[in-house]
Amino acid sequence: MTLAVLCGAVVGAGLFLLARLLLPQRTNVAVLVSRIDAGRRSLRGETLSEVQAVAGLGGGARAGMDRLADLLEVQAAERGWQLHRTRRDLALVNRSLGSFLATKLLAGVGLFLLVPFCWAALRVSGVPLPAAVPLVLGLVLGALGAFLPDLALRGEAEQRRRDFRRVVGVFLDLVAMNLAGGRGLPEALLASASVSDYWALVRIRQSLANARLMGTTPWEALGDLGRDIGVEELEDLAGALTLAADDGAKIRSSLSARSATMRRREMSDSEGQAGERSQSMLVAQMLLCCAFLLFLAYPAVDGLLAQG
């Protein structure tokens, strides 16, 4: 009886979520704009990358993944899901919200459906397992599969955010040197961002180029980029440039001081991470020593107990 009630509850919850996903919702301007953007992305021609070709994601599978991503992104917009932290992380790794939601959905459903097949294979092989095992294990693995993309996104975003902060420190030094060479602030910012094709400098360069096309100031573009990807250093830099845009000497000294502060902060963070890793290595060594001592002492203790 308990198993039947639990299965019915799971099936009912699935049907309810499916109905909420498929039934039309009340439309507004944000929903219509989201649908237009989704349709534009679906009709945009793209070239299959080498990684996707190796992974075998091409043709119909890729088109189906894009349609699912567009559908989920529209549904998220219709329901007003903000997901501020997730959107910042996705903007940093240059991924769309729809593709991320599609990955979560497919991972959860895939792991959930994997359990019944394994359970059936074990039952055919003669391994007696209760009927409630696949349901409980499937729910656990499905939740785990839906949560794993979040962990992967957080880890990748934090790593790229640390790299971006290092690049911002170097970028400040380059801007200060260009200002010392007699260039104006907008030209110094664009020239400093054009010295390399590293992904962080490319993002800064694209923001500055978009600001020129849109008729806004470069520091406003840097502030918007910092808010979009969650890098506070860019927001602070934009505020400092806004306040001191008319005084080149003060800008140079301020940029140099900010760069030195960021380097000291990076050094302290690196030393803290090195200390944590040293402590974890010490704990691992202590555990290995204890296990080895137990391995050596077990025969003697077993012999004494046998004699007694």
UniProtKB/TrEMBL annotation:
Pfam families assigned: T2SSF (PF00482)
Domain Type II secretion system protein GspF: 171-296
Location of the protein in the cell: Cell membrane
Superkingdom of origin: Bacteria
Topology of the protein relative to the lipid bilayer: Multi-pass membrane protein
Keywords for the protein's UniProt record, in alphabetical order: Cell membrane, Membrane, Transmembrane, Transmembrane helix
InterPro entries recorded: T2SS_GspF_dom
Main location: membrane
GO cellular component terms listed in the entry, alphabetical order: plasma membrane
Transmembrane listed as a keyword: yes
Membrane keyword on record: yes
Transmembrane residue ranges: 6-23, 105-125, 131-153, 282-301
Name of the protein described by the UniProt record: Flp pilus assembly protein TadB
